[in-house]
Amino acid sequence: MIHLVKLLDKDKKYLGRDGTYIPLVFSKTKGSLIIDAYGNKIIDFLSGWNVGNVGWGVAEIKNEIKRFNGPDYVDPYSLYKPWVDLAEILAKITPSNLVKSFRATGGTEAVEIAIQAAILHTKRSKFIAIKDSYHGHSIATMSLMKRPGFNFLDSHQIEIPLDTKAGREVEKILSKGDIAAYISEPIVLNLGVEIPTQEYFNLVQNACKKYGTVFIIDEVATGFGRTGKLFASEYYDLKPDIMCLGKGLTGGYGALGSTIMTEELAKSMEVDFSFYSTFGWHPLNTIATIANLKYLLKYKNSILKNVLAMSKYFAYRLSKMKFKYNPEIRIKGLAIAVRFKKEDYAQEIVNKTLENHLLISTLTPYVFTLFPSLTIDKDTAKKGLDILEYCL
């Protein structure tokens, strides 16, 4: 039996953290459940923050991984067929103008590569991002988001809501002709499922093309079915120059990210030592990712159908719940945010739900989020929502 206090003491002694931790000791995962070290079954409405989209412990995926008998490592400058296989899959499922994938270890590195490509291609170093959004934890991505103490990139910050007015602001900034790239999620999950208008993206995409600015869409969290489409950018018919991928790309069965871009952008990276990732697309992770994608694409229609059905169910149940403070509920597929005007109420709910074996998450003291598995069944969804309602 694991002693929680002793484990926590050792964790604090040996592991670096940002100060945040969830008092949950993982032992196993299966479907939409986490089994802790004490045998408790916790309903997972977080999915590793949009990682385990197809659910945990899928036998079809795990069996494919077990059959792997390839090399322990492949030198980044060498040839490896599974790399080509994975890149071909990504080229076929992303917008048609995106053809070349660059290997990354995760979402942060995928965005780093996109930033690098934009600078090399445009010979500019200024960016546009959404205020308080999230694109990773590297020096460049933290600078992109203007986090305190990180001011190494010149980044204009666009405030929500992302509507016609915001689109006009982006247009005005781009008209100066000195912006390397615009970057955002198609639906901004980190801001509580902020859903831009179609006009906003029409203005932004057209202005990027007009003024020679690289149009980057970050689908690390929104991609692979989370919002009810394979990619959230499909809702707006976006044709980005670069798309960043991670999280649901592997389903948690491996650690891997990808930056896929146009042929024109890829050529800008063809200079000595412009790109190198020691563990990008490690052989075992590559096989795991291919297995996850094959499963997702094989059952794509039924999975997305389930997302839309469960989305309606979550919306209905949440609308009937008697929160202490009237919230704003935002839902796109199974990306769900509940926003309050009362500070810390969201965290109170999150703490209570975990005590009652339901895992959800806060974004800010005002917002909690639900990111259940895309394959969650109604019975499990009901049990989880019953716990949430009980904890209000």
UniProtKB/TrEMBL annotation:
Pfam families in the cross-refs: Aminotran_3
PROSITE patterns assigned: AA_TRANSFER_CLASS_3
Organism annotation: Candidatus Woesebacteria bacterium RIFCSPLOWO2_01_FULL_37_19
Gene Ontology terms for molecular function: identical protein binding; pyridoxal phosphate binding; transaminase activity
Keywords linked to the UniProt accession: Aminotransferase, Pyridoxal phosphate, Transferase
Keyword S-adenosyl-L-methionine: no
Cofactor: pyridoxal 5'-phosphate
Protein name per its UniProtKB record: Aminotransferase
InterPro entries in alphabetical order: Aminotrans_3, Aminotrans_3_PPA_site, Class-III_PLP-dep_AT, PyrdxlP-dep_Trfase, PyrdxlP-dep_Trfase_major, PyrdxlP-dep_Trfase_small
